[in-house]
Automatic annotation (TrEMBL):
<protein>
    <submittedName>
        <fullName>Oxidoreductase</fullName>
    </submittedName>
</protein>
<dbReference type="InterPro" id="IPR055170">
    <property type="entry name" value="GFO_IDH_MocA-like_dom"/>
</dbReference>
<keyword id="KW-0732">Signal</keyword>
<feature type="domain" description="Gfo/Idh/MocA-like oxidoreductase N-terminal">
    <location>
        <begin position="4"/>
        <end position="121"/>
    </location>
</feature>
<dbReference type="InterPro" id="IPR050984">
    <property type="entry name" value="Gfo/Idh/MocA_domain"/>
</dbReference>
<dbReference type="Pfam" id="PF01408">
    <property type="entry name" value="GFO_IDH_MocA"/>
</dbReference>
<dbReference type="Pfam" id="PF22725">
    <property type="entry name" value="GFO_IDH_MocA_C3"/>
</dbReference>
<dbReference type="InterPro" id="IPR000683">
    <property type="entry name" value="Gfo/Idh/MocA-like_OxRdtase_N"/>
</dbReference>
<feature type="domain" description="GFO/IDH/MocA-like oxidoreductase">
    <location>
        <begin position="131"/>
        <end position="246"/>
    </location>
</feature>
<keyword id="KW-0560">Oxidoreductase</keyword>
<dbReference type="InterPro" id="IPR036291">
    <property type="entry name" value="NAD(P)-bd_dom_sf"/>
</dbReference>
<comment type="similarity">
    <text>Belongs to the Gfo/Idh/MocA family.</text>
</comment>
């Protein structure tokens, strides 16, 4: 069985969760990790039984045995690191948001195509079985004509002016950090861009937003989104039609969804997975590479460009 060697960029929390699930990905082999400090890379490699531990990311990019790179650093570093990995001839799965500007995203997608390399934003939510089941119900007409999409995602993050979340020099703010989820989840179920935006936000003392509400319209569908560093939101998604509605609890990491007609629960789905769910996006990346494809049809380059366009338009209204 063909296995691809993964190089992990970062020894942080998200990288650890990804590696925990990667062992359940059929065509994946955890081969190398890189961190800013050798001690951190060594510790991470020992914890996850990784063969190579590098200080500095370019060393990992230059390793000829690395097939695909997973970039899990803070998003303000994504552009530079993804660019370097692509230039070194590596396929890339990059955490969301893939960049912090639309121009950066366009540069990366163009570069990946010119190099014949896979570049995919790690929108793991799109590959979760419960999200895909909700989409199937919607497409089957189980809730009739879609009328409203409501999604929010927020967790309280203690204020720290120098911390990544609140530091404008590090692309801080809840919109890029957490708001990417409501926008992307809404986009998965909508058939056109969200327009006629109305935004309300709270801006904290460092000048970044820590609470945002977004209202818009996609064709005839009303869209209501929210994100926050101030409090835990419901973190659910609601797809409301003229014949019923779908509830997706904890939509960003969804493991179940429920279908209602008025007050009556008429169908439910639970995926019963044994992983967090990151293995599904890894499976997609490996499948595409082994097939010779350079773009996912689930998280397309156009999806990533749309996310960046929407983030920029919301940001301009804060």
């Amino acid at each position: 069985m063909t296995q691809l060697n993964w190089g992990i960029v970062s020894a942080g929390r998200i990288a650890a969760l990804f590696c925990q699930d990667l062992v359940h990905s059929t065509h994946s082999h955890l081969y190398a990790v890189a961190a800013r400090k050798q001690a951190d890379a060594d510790r991470f490699a020992e914890q996850h039984q990784i063969e190579k531990a590098y200080q500095g990311y370019q060393t990992l990019f230059d390793d000829p045995k690395v097939d695909i790179v997973y970039i899990a650093t803070p998003h303000n570093f994504h552009f530079k690191q993804t660019y370097a990995a692509l230039m070194a001839g590596k396929h890339v799965l990059c955490e969301k948001p893939m960049t912090v500007t639309l121009d950066e995203c366009q540069i990366l997608t163009t570069l990946a195509k010119s190099k014949g390399l896979l570049l995919m934003e790690a929108m793991w939510t799109y590959f979760l079985p419960a999200i895909q089941q909700a989409k199937l119900w919607l497409d089957e007409g189980r809730i009739g004509q879609l009328k409203h999409v409501k999604v929010d995602f927020g967790y309280p993050i203690p204020f720290n002016a120098q911390g990544r979340e609140y530091n404008p020099q590090l692309a801080g703010g809840c919109l890029l950090d957490m708001g990417i989820y409501p926008l992307a989840i809404a986009d998965y179920f909508l058939t056109s861009d969200i327009n006629n935006l109305y935004v309300q936000a709270n801006v904290c003392e460092t000048g970044v937003e820590d609470d945002v509400i977004i209202i818009g319209k996609s064709d005839d569908v009303m869209v209501s989104l929210a994100t926050s560093f101030q409090c835990r939101l419901s973190n659910n998604a609601y797809l409301i039609g003229d014949k019923g509605y779908i509830v997706i609890p904890d939509a960003f990491r969804a493991s179940q969804c429920h279908l209602y007609h008025l007050e009556d629960l008429v169908d439910s789905f639970t995926d019963k997975r044994q992983t967090l769910g990151y293995n599904f996006e890894a499976d997609e990346a490996c499948k595409l590479i082994l097939r010779g494809d350079i773009e996912s049809q689930v998280v397309t380059h156009n999806c990533s460009l749309l996310f960046q366009s929407q983030l920029a338009r919301v940001k301009a209204l804060i």
